[in-house]
Amino acid sequence: MDWTALGLSLRLAGWTVVFLLPVAVIAGRMLAYRRFRAKGLVEALVMLPLVLPPTVFGFYLLVAFGGNSPVGDLWQRLFGDQLVFSFQGLVLASVIFNLPFAIQPAQRGFEAVPLEVREAAATCGMSPARSLWRVELPLAWPGVMTAMVLTFAHTLGEFGIVLMVGGSIPGETKTIAIAIYDRVQAFDMQGAASMSAVLVGISLVTIALTYWLSARVGKRLG
Amino acid sequence: MIPFPSRRAVGAALVAGLIAVMPMQAAAQRDAPVIAAASDLQFAITEVAQAFTAETGQAVRLSFGSTGNFARQIREGAPFGVFMAADEAFIADLHADGFTRDAGDLYALGRIVIMVPEGSALAPDADLDALERMLTAGEIARFAIANPEHAPYGMRAREALISRGLWDDLQPVMVLGENVSQAAQFALSGNAAGGIIAYSLALAPQVAARGTYALIPEDWHAPLRQRMALLKGAGPTAEAFYAYMQTPEARAIMAGYGFDLPGDG
Fold first, then answer.
1. Quick check: B186 and B192 in contact, CB under 8 A?
2. A58, A113, A150, B137: which has the fewest Cβ within 10 Å?
3. From chain A, which residues contact B within 8 Å (Cβ)?
4. Alpha-carbon span B198 to B111, nearest angstrom
5. Of A14, A85, A185, which has the smallest distance from its Cβ to B79's Cβ?
6. pTM of the full predicted structure?
7. What is the pLDDT of residues B168-192, one digit of tens each?
């Protein structure tokens, strides 16, 4: 059992959730309520990582953020660190790749908030921010929670991108999924088996949690 | 109805707590340099690294993969301290483009073997006669080598098979590992008749227990001249490990994994 790799994966998943929580709330709410011309395009772009092979995404990340690219060069000058082959790079990749998992369920959650309730909040003189915090989030939070749980679990399982931009550095970019791959290549079936079992357990809990939460999306305040 | 935490403080405290326990990087690990080692070194360098740490108290982090992939990652800025390639041509290219500190040192000469899993109908023989016979009879379902596009052990396997005249006939049943250790995994999984892998892997206890092997004649392929080099960003621990590779202790471990050592004559 590679505890360093498991810890790294949990940290990666945690940071991804931290960065995506505000994005999911703001973007999910906007997509749920607003009507604008490019909405279909925006929704398609958000969903793109869902169907895009991780290797394609990893390839573009390498090209865009590698040491020879302007972005990679700027990052290096600002933080004195590489973006690819670093934990920060994985967090960035993971945030982008999890956009559909974070935004989609949050959007469903906000869509379940009835228009009358939002109008009533506005009529009572609530600012949009206050309405979000006191009225909409209490109703939409199962959707937002589902988004975060899915994001967390999906990050733990991500493999293709990490393989492309990670470099399998212990404690830095060697996630649990990569560690399993490495253990199999090292003929350590025991190690691969125990780590796989841990991931199966986490995934089962996640799915159960997601179902439990989604059953509550759309339930009204009594 | 599920209660929603009405107090802002609860959420803020949760987020703050989460961030507090999740540093962006584990500080202790940052000091240990990463040794990017070709996959044929999977077991040998793990043992060398243990001996190095036991003797010096300094830790290194090991990353295994195909030499070609590591060379590409180094060009993209991978923060490795030492690159231990399975083929010196990759070191020469990196050196020419200014990625390594110097031309590096030859640290081992590798060999390839044909290895078959326990219970395979294929007999491992150095001349590959049994392979040819079974191939002609259509009795080989799968045969594994490392990807010759970027893995030196795959390149040498291809050269050996070409010089033996079996390369074209093997195409329909060939499976390619991403590196030589995955090729070994494929070859010995029980789903293939066998494969051509590194001698150093065949000698490792974890692998040796799974099958039998025969050394392929050296003159069937270009030599596997394995060279290592310090990369531009290497620190003192990486330098110490590099120097340790040339000590009698490390050389003895390498010899135990079937490597011929430079300077032994």
1. yes
2. B137
3. 4, 7-8, 11, 14-15, 18, 62, 66-68, 72, 76, 82, 84-88, 91, 133, 137-138, 141-142, 167-172, 174, 182, 184-188, 216, 219, 221-222
4. 6
5. A85
6. 0.84
7. 999 999 999 999 999 999 999 888 9
Distance separating alpha carbons of residues A90 and A162, to the nearest angstrom:
7
Q: Which residues of chain A have a CB within 8 Å of the CB of B63?
A: 167-170, 174
Q: Do A216 and B19 touch (CB under 8 A)?
A: no
Q: Could you give the ipTM of this predicted complex? A: 0.79
User: Higher-confidence residue: B26 or A121?
Assistant: A121
In chain B, which ranges are continuous DSSP H helix?
8-20, 27-30, 44-56, 67-75, 88-96, 129-136, 152-164, 167-170, 180-188, 199-202, 205-208, 236-244, 248-256
CB atoms within 10 A of CB A201: 10
- Which residues in chain B (38-77) have CB-CB distances under 8 A to chain A? 39, 42-43, 61-65, 73, 75-77
Check the CA dihedral B72-B73-B76-B79 and report its sign: negative
Question: Apex CA A159: angle with CA A153 and CA A164, to 5°?
Answer: 140
For residue B39, list chain A residues with Cβ-Cβ distance below 8 A.
185
Cβ-based contacts of A68 with chain B (< 8 Å): 76-77
Judge residue A196's burial from the number of C-beta atoms within 10 Å of its C-beta, 0-12 exposed, 13-18 middle, 19 or more buried: middle
**pLDDT for position A221:** 47
Nearest residue on chain B to A168, alpha-carbon basis? B63
Segment A159-165 shows an average pLDDT of 87
- Judge whether residue A81 has pLDDT over 80: no
pLDDT in tens, B44-70: 999 999 999 999 999 999 999 999 999
Q: Rounded mean pLDDT of chain B? A: 90
